[in-house]
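R.M. (postdoc): so does anyone remember the format we settled on? I'll just put the structure tokens first.
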């Protein structure tokens, strides 16, 4: 993940004037407007392009407010203040964000842009992921700093379609590679036709792909993109995950971003994080331990101090916590080290490109919430002038004295609900909303009868 000292200049991948012209010429006939939900997915509508330009672009469009109050299966669930049976499951307005407008080459004749939900009073909906991230960006700006990030999500690719995988109960699927192809050019050549489509079509959508490589698990790969400001990176990451799945489906294949799809290596989403001052100069690098500045050390200390309380945003699902195994390249110890992949926080890069890599999130993470948590951790470290623990050298998995990543979602929820830092950083409404999201996930899992239980007990108990 390349991070440079020079400031990037953002330009919408597709200007509104270009959209209007292409709609008039017949080049674009469909506009997809999407909001980012709690799980980091894109939800929304496909509009006839002329109607979008004439009516929606200026005024937005209504959608059910339950989109931020459902489980992963889109079931309405109790416990949310913003949307429930008592309030009648009303609407909010999806307000388009023209700065995110882009073509999506994998859907011919289509453009896409993101939207923000606003209530009947015109106010932003507090638990919306993009709003949560924007709030943390504003808090950091109060310290004269701007956050930049790059997200590296791994995925597992199967040669089965999503429909076939579902019919087979997601068992006995055929991975796209049948041995460890980490950095293997020969092994990944067989999947290159699909990976090339994803890279080139993401570039056509205004993203900046850097590279693709194989990973350790069977069928596991990673495509990485150039860093950007925090909101742009989160937006593009959500678009990429949705688009990669759509492209795979068109090829009769399937991609999963589950954190731990099987007993082998899990899929991470390492997030590289840096900040710049008002003059655009990198604020992380310095002459101190780990090549960090005084501000960089406070930021790193804040990230480590808040990781247990914020783990609900880094690891939001039951399955997320199954990545954290010794010797798995997923961290268990909340330590930091210079270029040390056994630690939760790794100092990566050199010179102006020095940055902090958070190795805790899995590929199932909501990028907006995870980056918001990192910025909140950075602000916490700066405001409290935290002292960074000593750099860890060696195998952090073997450090029995280290504070640990929470072992389960239940542990993470307990930390989240008891945390004053959570309420101070995100507010009581957001804290309660995402606590309920975790309880919904736990209740669903506790009620499920798993394959493990059937295999263990059907005959022998």
């Amino acid at each position: 993940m390349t991070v440079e000292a020079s400031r990037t200049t953002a330009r919408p991948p597709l200007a509104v004037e270009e959209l209007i012209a292409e709609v008039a010429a017949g080049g674009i006939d469909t506009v997809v407007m999407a909001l980012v939900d709690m799980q980091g997915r894109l939800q929304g509508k496909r509009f006839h392009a002329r109607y979008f330009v004439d009516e929606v672009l200026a005024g937005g469009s209504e959608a059910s407010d339950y989109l931020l109050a459902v489980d992963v299966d889109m079931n309405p669930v109790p416990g949310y203040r913003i949307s429930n049976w008592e309030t009648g499951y009303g609407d909010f307005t999806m307000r388009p964000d023209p700065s995110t407008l882009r073509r999506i080459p994998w859907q011919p004749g289509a453009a896409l842009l993101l939207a923000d939900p606003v209530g009947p009073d015109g106010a932003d909906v507090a638990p919306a992921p993009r709003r949560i991230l924007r709030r943390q960006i504003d808090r950091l700006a109060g310290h004269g700093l701007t956050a930049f990030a790059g997200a590296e999500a791994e995925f597992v690719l199967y040669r089965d379609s999503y429909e076939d995988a579902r019919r087979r109960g997601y068992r006995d699927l055929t991975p796209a590679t049948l041995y460890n192809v980490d950095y293997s050019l020969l092994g990944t050549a067989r999947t290159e036709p699909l990976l090339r489509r994803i890279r080139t079509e993401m570039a056509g959508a205004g993203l900046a792909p850097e590279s693709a490589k194989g990973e350790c698990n069977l069928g596991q790969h990673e495509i990485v993109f150039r860093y950007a400001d925090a909101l742009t990176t989160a937006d593009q990451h959500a678009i990429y995950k949705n688009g990669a799945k759509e492209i795979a489906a068109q090829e009769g294949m399937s991609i999963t971003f589950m954190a731990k799809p099987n007993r082998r290596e899990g899929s991470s989403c390492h997030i590289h994080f840096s900040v710049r001052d008002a003059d655009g100069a990198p604020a992380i690098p310095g002459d101190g331990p780990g090549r960090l500045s005084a501000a960089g050390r406070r930021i790193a200390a804040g990230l480590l101090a808040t990781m247990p309380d914020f783990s609900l945003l880094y690891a939001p699902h039951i399955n997320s916590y199954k990545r954290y195994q010794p010797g798995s390249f997923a961290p268990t110890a909340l330590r930091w080290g210079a270029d040390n992949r056994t630690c939760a926080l790794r100092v990566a890069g050199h010179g102006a490109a020095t940055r902090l890599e958070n190795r805790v999130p899995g590929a199932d993470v909501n990028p907006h919430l995870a980056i918001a948590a990192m910025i909140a951790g950075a602000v916490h470290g700066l405001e409290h002038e935290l002292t960074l623990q000593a750099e860890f050298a060696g195998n952090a998995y073997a450090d029995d004295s280290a504070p640990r990543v929470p072992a389960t979602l239940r542990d993470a929820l307990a930390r989240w609900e008891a945390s004053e830092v959570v309420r101070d950083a995100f507010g009581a409404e957001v804290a309660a909303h995402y606590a309920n999201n975790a309880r919904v996930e736990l209740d669903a899992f506790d009620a499920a009868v798993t394959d493990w239980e059937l295999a263990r007990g059907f005959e022998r108990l």
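R.M.: ...and that's the designed sequence above, right after the tokens. Also worth knowing: Residues 230-250 form the longest helix (21 residues). The radius of gyration is 22 Å.
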